[in-house]
Amino acid sequence: MSSNNQKIEYCTCKKCSSITTELGEWGYWDVCCDCGKRLEDGFHYYNHYDGEDHYDIDLY
Predict the structure, then answer these.
(1) Second label for 2, Cα 20 to 30 Å away, from 9, 19, 24, 26?
(2) Contact 32, 13 (CB under 8 A)
(3) Is-contact 33 16, C-beta < 8 A?
(4) CA-to-CA separations, 3 to 6, 7, 9, 45, 53, in angstroms, rounded
(5) Angle CA(12)–CA(42)–CA(2) in degrees, nearest 5?
(6) What pLDDT, on the 0 to 100 scale, is given for residue 10?
(7) Please, which residues bridge with residue 31 across strands?
(8) Residue 57 DSSP label
(9) Which among 56, 54, 15, 19 is positioned nearest to 36, based on CA atoms?
(10) Strand (E) positions, 1-60?
(11) The sheet that has 19-23: what strands, in order across it?
């Protein structure tokens, strides 16, 4: 998605027969195996655990 003008198309299948994942730098997407498109609410951030306490304010 190199261009800001490029619109992401999400899955519109009524029911996915199965789901796989697409890995990214900060998390992963759920992807429909039927159409190959991302699920609209399917982004999951990776858990960040390095043995230290982090506050949400550090994320911004």
Answers:
(1) 19
(2) yes
(3) yes
(4) 5, 9, 14, 22, 36
(5) 85
(6) 96
(7) 20, 38
(8) G
(9) 19
(10) 19-23, 27-32, 38-45
(11) 19-23, 27-32, 38-45
Consecutive 10-residue averages of pLDDT for the chain (60 residues): 67 95 92 96 80 56
Contacts of 19 (CB under 8 A, 6+ apart): 30, 31, 32, 33, 39, 42
Identify residue 35 by its one-letter amino acid code.
C
Q: If we measure between CA atoms, which residue out of 60, 31, 27, 58 comes closest to residue 45?
A: 27
User: What is the number of residues in the chain?
Assistant: 60
CA distance 39 to 41: 6
